[in-house]
Amino acid sequence: MLSERVHTFGQFLLKKHGERVHKIALDAGFTCPNRDGAKGIGGFVHELFTAPFGKWMFPANLLLNAVELLAKPVSLAMRLFGNMYGGEIVFLLIWVLGGAGVGGALASAVFGLGWGLFHILIITLQAFIFMMLTLIYLGQAHEAH
Length: 145
Known about the structure:
Blueprint: H1 2-5, H2 9-17, H3 40-50, H4 58-97, H5 102-142
Helix pairs in contact: 4-5
């Protein structure tokens, strides 16, 4: 009863070709460290000590890779801090303009609104840039040198 209601792929191929279809496994000689392409702990440690100069230069390799591993998050953090700090300084300067009398208050309101709208566009762009940089860094974590 169940076989009448379920149409399997094998039944589809039997109906299409008129006979049973078999699959043949071929070995093309390709290798992969893991199914998902990740290096794993062993591959990471191996690359940490052997890339890019080989196993005999492991102190230089370790130093160079340590600098590389620390530089990526530090550069992202400094960029994020600089962007946030710069935007807030502009808001403070516009606020200070409001202390210059009635004309300054009016200019401060207009410029503050304009900068606020512009800042919303900028932070959206920055979020996109940080997302792309993070994806690039994560993609590089799966590749070999």
